[in-house]
# Entry
Amino acid sequence: MTKTIKVKDKEFAVSIPAEQLQKEVCRVAQEINRDYAGRQPVFLAVLNGSFIFAADLLREITLPCEISFVKLASYQGVNTTGEIREVIGLNTDITGRPVIVVEDIVDTGLTMAHMLDTLKSQNPASVDICALLLKPGKLQVSLDVRYCCMQIPNDFIVGYGLDYDGFGRNTKDIYTLIPENGEK
Ligand code: IMP
# Structure
């Protein structure tokens, strides 16, 4: 029988078990260890969603490296209705350094595209994206996600760091929203 959980008012069914996540995280860590051999990357983990992924990934990284944590603060621009997301908490000097951004999930890709613009203004040697999950069906911008553990359908998910309205981050497995009648 499929394992289900209730997060706030919604029901979710297990879709990516912990064992599968661990396997894919190890695979990606090995790719990074291989590709970055001889270099000392700075990992930038994007809070809050990537905290569990980053913790598991970094324990499989055998390179000499630094890890720093950034957050994206959302606010409304003065003369625009669009949402602006500012990168805060970047207190590591990334000038001339190889940077790997650790993100929980790339959905439309707008967050990562903005993040890349911000980081590039500080002249790092290179920037790669390492995402736990990618929803290719939702991408709105062209984005090179060099490292990706898994591609998933467009459904809403929680667990392993990802939340629904602040809840549901603290599970080992990932769960997919069970659509209610007429809801997708
Ligand atoms: P993007 O800018 O549309 O790529 O959005 C990326 C951010 O949206 C991620 O860092 C998550 O915080 C959030 N997000 C996107 N899809 C999901 C989901 O299915 N569950 C939980 N959070 C999500």
The two ends are 22 Å apart (CA to CA). The beta strands are 4-7, 10-16, 42-47, 66-76, 83-88, 98-106, 126-134, 147-151, 157-158, 174-177. Residues 159 and 169 are 5 Å apart (CA to CA).
